Amino acid sequence: MTGFQASVASFEIAKGERAILLLSEAEVERHLDLTQLLDGLEEGFRELERGAVQSPPRPEITIPRAGFSLTMSAWMPGMQICVKVVNVFEANVDRSLPSHLAMITLYDPNTGATSCVMDGTYLTGVRTAASAVLSVRLLSRTDSQVATIVGAGVQAREHLRLLPMVRDFERINICSLEYEHARRLAERNDRARPCADMQAAVAESDVVCLATHSPRPVINAEWVRPGTHVSSVGYHPPDGELPRALAYRSRLVVESLDAFEPAPVGCSDLSEADPSQAATLGAVALDSELGRTAPEQITLYKAMGHGMEDLIAANLVYTNAVQSAPTQTMTW
User: Fold this and answer.
1) In terms of C-beta density within 10 A (0-12 exposed, 13-18 middle, 19 or more buried), how is residue 210 classed?
2) 11 assigned to some structural domain
3) Which partner from 16, 51, 95, 194 sits 20 to 30 angstroms from 187, CA to CA?
4) Cα–Cα distances in Å, from 88 out to 60, 73, 265, 292?
5) Range of the domain at 320
6) Within 13 Å of residue 239, how many CA atoms lie on the same side as its CB?
7) Could you read off the pLDDT of 9-24 as tens digits, one per residue?
8) In angstroms, how far is CA 153 from the centroid of its own chain?
């Protein structure tokens, strides 16, 4: 037929080699601005509340007597699709490896083609702490003077870096089962000090950040004085670091209402809490009246980890890396 040009058949199309941005842990840290991260997460929580973010419940693979693997994915308009695999193996510490190891892949939302592969270990730690510290910015009293971090691991390290960005604390106590670890961590900040008496530290605090991997509550709810903001990022089913009684007497705020689902989707710490009494951090970011309503009120943010947080952080890294000097790529 004159003038007819047959279309290309799908069997005739090959992917061929494509350049994919490859970012190491050090490069991820270099390209992630912490001020951008805090602000980006606040807007991300707003978009999550508005329904603009897709992030399905996370599946889990359990390796008996070793660890578990979670997959978290998310997307919102204007960003690369984000998929993260995070593996939690507690015995890694004895092997001089982080207990949480992660890898993130980004995909072009127009084609589905892989655009970037980055190490997700540092990013996972800092985005978790940043979300908790964002809750401090949105829910703690503006005159807060003393904070206590319970724990002396990766999360405690990141909390210590980020807390001074949202409140002008006079002192930051660090409590740990290993006092020497708390002492060494406190050396990183002039306002930090190790504290062996956890009850006394919590009792004097305006902000308390639980940042452990404990399978049981690390503080007593009665230690928390009126007006305190508490955050908890630990994940260790079937119990966890947060005393359940604290959820009953606090203004409870979560990342999403999925927090009340059974683990691994939700938080085992909230298994007896009432979802109807909770607000989401995105709702508070949109309307502050849904958060703290009185100076003497105890507010509580319980994190489970959400794919939106990886989405925001990884896209910030990707955008900054693309705009900076050339970085390593691989063909695939």
Assistant:
1) buried
2) no
3) 95
4) 11, 17, 15, 34
5) 19-123+308-331
6) 11
7) 988 888 878 889 999 9
8) 15
